[in-house]
Amino acid sequence: MTPMLEGRRIRLEPMTREHLPALEKVAFDERIWRMMTHPVKTPEQLRAWLEKSLELEAAGTVVPWVTVLKDGNRVIGSTRFLDFDAANRTTELGNTWLAPEFHGAGINPEAKLLQLTYAFEELKLNRVALKTHHENFQSQAAMKKMGATYEGTFRNHYIMSDGSLRHSVWYSIIKEDWPRVKALLESRVGAIR
């Protein structure tokens, strides 16, 4: 079951069908989905994306959240754990997106601090992976800045919706890294006013 995670400026709420109208207000900017394997362009696609998220949550492999800006109680994006593996105590943190007006606003570091604290301190995970499109330099820079370790690139990993090939660039944070990563994220989040 997906928990509520509360930060200073944002709240990560367990995704529900009731979030769909609020997600529809922010989800259709093409910049959000440009490097995602399954872009969402229509209300029907967004509904299918949400339903698939809830289906995978029920199967125990995905932990999906909706990102809510506490000031105004406004839905501004989504994030999740993917490929959750309780037996091996691993997951992937991804499928993260924010309305473009919040890019560079310090929301993502706060969300990652909340998620990683939950992963390492509550779930006692050993490893959290992150991956991104080889051309998503903004995401790669964010992963490095938070202290994740580059692990390698899966070449020709996915076929994108436009037919192009995506190489997936992989990073990870393991439990031994967590104190350092936590200190970096807390410093960044604390510096935002």
Structure commentary:
The protein is an alpha+beta fold and 193 residues long. It has one domain (5-191): 3-Layer(aba) Sandwich (Aminopeptidase). It is built from 6 helices and 8 strands. Strands 1-2-3-4-5-6-8-7 form an 8-stranded mixed beta sheet. The mean pLDDT is 95.
Topology pattern, helix = H, strand = E: EEHHHEEEHEHEEH
Q: Give me the count of strands.
A: 8
Largest sheet: 8 strands, mixed
Mean pLDDT equals: 95
Please give the CATH class: Alpha Beta
How much of the residues is beta strand, in percent?
25-35%
Count structural domains: 1
Q: Return the CATH topology.
A: Aminopeptidase
Contiguous helical run count: 6
Overall morphology: globular
Spatial order of strands in the largest sheet? 1-2-3-4-5-6-8-7
- What is the architecture at the second tier of CATH? 3-Layer(aba) Sandwich
Summed up, what is this model?
α4 links the parallel β5 and β6 (127-133). This protein is of the alpha+beta class and 193 residues long. It is built from 6 helices and 8 strands; from the N terminus they run ββαααβββαβαββα.
Key structural traits:
193 residues; alpha+beta; Aminopeptidase; 8-stranded mixed β-sheet; 6 helices; 8 strands; 34% helix; 33% strand
Topology diagram in text:
Layout: E1 5-6, E2 10-14, H1 20-24, H2 30-33, H3 43-59, E3 63-69, E4 74-85, E5 90-98, H4 107-122, E6 127-133, H5 137-145, E7 149-159, E8 165-174, H6 178-191
Parallel strand pairs: 5-6
Antiparallel strand pairs: 1-2, 2-3, 3-4, 4-5, 6-8, 7-8
